[in-house]
Specification:
By secondary structure, this protein is of the alpha/beta class. It has a single domain, classed as UDP-N-acetylmuramoyl-L-alanine:D-glutamate ligase. Helix content is 35%, strand content 21%. It is built from 10 helices and 13 strands. It has a 9-stranded mixed sheet with strand order 5-4-1-8-9-10-11-12-13, sandwiched between helices. A 4-stranded mixed sheet has the order 3-2-6-7. Helix 6 crosses helix 7 and helix 8 packs antiparallel against helix 9. The longest helix has 16 residues. It is globular.
């Protein structure tokens, strides 16, 4: 079993997509009524990299971007945040970068995601072969990377190489049905990935999906925690989360905020949680800090630019200490 103290090395490989996000301006504007948009770095794995960087860690993104202005925008943004991009490859041809148009509004929220011919799905085993795993303590991936070939085989190859190099495997289930050829394929692939990973994070619907029925999701999370994983976090939205390890189980609440949008919470939770573990915080406090990061991000425009700094997180926790739900 992976030694969690290695996370203190605070240097992470992250596999998955980087994308361009467009937000209608000003906040509250519907996309079809917008006259101008704010552009920012997005994509779940890129967002996690940014969160780690903002908390003082080091991250390297492994992905493909389109060989065009949008792909170069993503690379430039990653580098401005301090993310290592040596494993980001520009993919030529007709493949295009992930693009999302997402509203900064909760009521009747609309997010439109363009993923046809996605460049990040073109990551290959050859891309993985270029990686030096030695400097990193863990490999983080989100479930979207497993939805199509050749990215799926490349990701599993990275899992095997990371394990052989002594890295921990951290998995955010992140199920997005539109990316998968079938629900059955997704469930089988996620189960295979989950059995290999040391830290697994997902919501109640995602674990239920892996188990074959929503009511069996928590049982699935517990099964993973008692067989292969060191930490499993079963998120329940407004009801908080249940954290399960081989030796304990505890429930935590959330920090209610006036949300500006419903997106970005999962990426912020992952980044804040892992960064807190890496910085020596106990498990329960790390979960709560991840929850606070999620609350901060949904109250701001954007995803990557909305990830909080340690100073912002400290201020938020001080101001909201009495608002944590049971």
């Amino acid at each position: 079993m992976f030694d969690l103290t290695r996370l203190a090395e605070n240097n992470f490989l992250v596999i998955g997509r980087a994308g361009m996000d467009f937000y209608p301006e000003p906040p509250g504007t519907k996309t079809e009524d917008a006259m101008q948009f704010f552009a920012a770095l997005g994509g779940s794995s890129a967002n996690i990299c940014v969160a780690i960087q903002k908390h003082g860690g080091q991250s390297s993104l492994v992905t493909c971007v389109s060989d065009d202005a949008v792909g170069r925008f993503c690379i430039n943004q990653l580098e401005q945040y301090g993310v290592n991009t040596e494993y980001v490859r520009a993919q030529d041809g007709e493949y295009r970068n992930s693009l999302a148009v997402s509203e900064s509004r909760v009521e009747d929220h609309q997010t439109v995601i363009y993923r046809n011919g996605a460049a990040d799905f073109q990551m290959t085993i050859d891309d993985i072969s270029t990686i030096d795993f030695a400097p990193s303590c863990a490999l983080i991936t989100t479930g979207t990377v497993l939805a199509a070939e050749p990215s799926r085989s490349a990701a599993f190859n990275a899992f095997e190489r990371a394990k052989a190099a002594g890295l921990g495997l951290i998995f955010d289930i992140d199920y997005r049905p539109y990316s998968w050829p079938s629900a059955e394929d997704a469930a089988a692939t996620y189960s295979k990935a989950g059995a290999m990973c040391d830290i697994i994070i997902g919501n109640d619907v995602e674990f239920g999906f892996m188990a074959g029925h929503y009511d069996k999701g928590l049982d699935k999370a517990r099964e993973l925690a008692t067989s292969t994983a060191s930490i499993v976090i079963y998120k329940m939205g407004e009801k908080g989360a249940i954290t399960i390890t081989p030796t304990e189980e505890f429930k935590t609440g959330i920090y209610p905020v006036q949300a500006l949008k419903p997106t970005g919470a999962g990426d912020s939770f992952m980044g804040g949680f892992i960064a807190s573990l890496a910085n020596g915080y106990p498990l329960k406090e790390s979960v709560l800090r991840g929850s606070a990061c999620a609350s901060i991000v949904v109250s701001r425009v954007g995803c990557a630019p909305a990830m909080p700094t340690p100073a912002e997180l400290k201020e938020f926790l001080a101001l909201n200490a009495d608002t944590l739900t049971a």
